[in-house]
Amino acid sequence: MAHGKATITVDEYSSNPTQAFTHYNINQSRFQPPHVHMVDPIPYDTPKPTGHTRFVCVSDTHSRTDGIQMPYGDVLLHTGDFTELGLPSEVKKFNDWLGGLPYDFKVVIAGNHELTFDKDFMAELVKQDYYRFPSVSKLKPEDFDDVQALLTNGVYLQDSDVTVKGFRIYGTPCAATV
């Protein structure tokens, strides 16, 4: 660390998550990149030390946020699969939940379940049979044209970044379809 700035090395597989999983899964007893060190979890209600920024990272809530007891923190990162299919009604419900959370900053990244956030996927899907996603078949293109705009209670990252409390956060959605 020089002059208060840390050097962060980008993992060689960061642009190809499938290759990264395969590499680390084969080369290690469990999936863990060599520069990542496991830490013991702390209870959700542990007070934050003065001068620290606490990130709360969640994913895979799949429209089931009712009753979730969220840890104390400053920044919430929801890193994908906050809906089942990315239906506008699901996104609105998630956005309402975000609005009720006490975090100073809320950052959202789409996962593979947010189908409507992937315009290329949806363009192909509307040309095909909807047998895998019957709920999506009821949508018209204008229903999901700008579904990201429904996330008004957080910052949505799609191949973009935001700086929060001095930390630069980059988000890119998962493009693999379930």
From TrEMBL:
Pfam family, one: Metallophos
Gene3D superfamilies: 3.60.21.10
Superkingdom of origin: Eukaryota
Sample GO molecular function, one term: hydrolase activity
Domain Calcineurin-like phosphoesterase, residue spans: 54-135
Protein family according to the UniProt entry: Belongs to the UPF0046 family.
Entry protein name: Calcineurin-like phosphoesterase domain-containing protein
Native species: Muraenolepis orangiensis (Patagonian moray cod)
